[in-house]
UniProtKB/TrEMBL annotation:
Transmembrane segments: none annotated. It comes from the Bacteria. Residues 98-139, 178-214 form the Iron-binding zinc finger CDGSH type domain. This is Iron-binding zinc finger CDGSH type domain-containing protein.
Amino acid sequence: MSDKQVVEYPGAEIDVQWDGRLCIHIGECGTAAGELFVGGREPWCVPDGCSKAEVREIIERCPSGALTYRDKDGGPEVAPAENIVTLAYNGPLYAHGELVIDGIPEDLPGVSHRAALCRCGASANKPFCDNSHLAAGFEDFGAVGERGAPLHALGGPLAIKPLADGPLLVKGNLSIRAASGRLAWEGTETALCRCGASQNKPFCDGSHRAAGFKSD
């Protein structure tokens, strides 16, 4: 893989882009069966190595938005019908939906549908995860105690606003899944902890103030 921050992999029908600013090496790409991604090969990604439909499906597996595509004949990536935030075991929040993340540069197209958001407080790339939770020893197994209120509709824009020195304020139709995969919470507005100190994870309980959390 190239050391460049953003790498383009052109194909006849579809192009793939990898953005190192977002990649946390989950490996959904490298472990995918087929010839799209092959470790040690140069180039690592060959969009013509499989069908266009396979390219789209594999790229959309990337939970951080580091991988995106440009379909030369088809439409762009479509937001899923439901907005879901999944808690990773001792790791970030994986957001998948029609994401509208406040303050994010326009040159990060992948995070309009997929993003890995820091919840340990240690990332140097806030609001995104950069795997700092590993060195920080962040521990949260991804259980959710609250239930919220049943949704009357699914999907639609999910506004995510990182508050200065505070939580992620989320507005829109949202389902939260525990790390076990359980549908745990539903609602249209909540504040999600990103300092790592809340006693009511994944929700903010104001602990960021005592913890001296800084978002910059």
